[in-house]
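ok so for the tutorial part 2 we go from a plain amino acid sequence to predicted structure tokens. step 1 is just haveing the sequence, like this:
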Amino acid sequence: MSDMDKWRAVAAATGKSDRPAAERGVRLAYRKAGLAEPERIIWAGSPLAGVELVRSLDGAGRSVRDEVRTHPWAEERRRVHDTLGPAGWAEHWSATGARLWDTGRMLADRIRTGVVEALSGEPAEPAEAARIRTVLLDAVLGQHDAAWLAAFDGRGERLEGLAEVARHAGWWWPYARAVVICERPSELHRDEAGRLDRGDGPALAFPDGFALYAWRGMPVPAEFLDELASLTPERIRDEANAELRRVMLEHYGYDRYLDESGAQPVHRDESGVLWRISLRGDEDIAMVEVVNSTPEPDGTRRTYWLRVPPTTRTAKQGVAWTFGLEAEEYEPLRQT
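step 2 — the prediction. this is what the tokens look like for a chain of 336 residues:
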């Protein structure tokens, strides 16, 4: 397994943390920062529970995140940058941390949002939400720091403790006399783009019950997913939230929805059939029905449905759009 594959696995790791190894990493990180080891290391079941513990801590002292994480990271980055030069650093980052950066940032941002929403009340109280965000800013992200740790793997001695924690645990809060450290997720489900995605349960779950639900990256309520198996065109039409309605349509299938909702074709030409249906408070659904000109082995011809912009006026215009062309430019020798 390559170094990048190892860090990719760290970022996506689920299951029980190796607490002794993570605690050794914490103590090493303190020593590397020139600090006395923390007197207490307290475990939490999730970042949400971690925030609650941090807010109730007595006698923990000041945050030492800058000494433990920020300053060592900045110094190592400067050292590697000076060694490799600007072009070399850019090439090195592209081959290492950049490969994990976007998905890691998306996941960390979603966790922060979920914690704030869970703890700040409904509707959210702005001052309380701001206080929770301040606590979250003091966290070291453990396994979700994998992107930048990958860029310094084997290069930064001062980062060895941070890397050890990341390999074995989740988020943690370093204070002068105490540390709060979180378990890793128990479940993580993502789509091919790295977005949280699951249609039959939490996309991200922690062992203490804190969970986030999402469909192709879009946050959804837990109870919303229970409805997906029994959707009808009428239920989809009645959904007032346009974003949730789009999730319903993706799950139900645009072609099936058009077929079962009484949609009527609005244009027909040699390229196919243009269908359109209006939705309350949202843009129209427009799709082109295209029949493959090449028959299947059994002699049948497969039908495809192409989602096109709601402004599409002809089937040919819609098919041309899928190729990045204007209708007058689209003149295929044979449609496939």
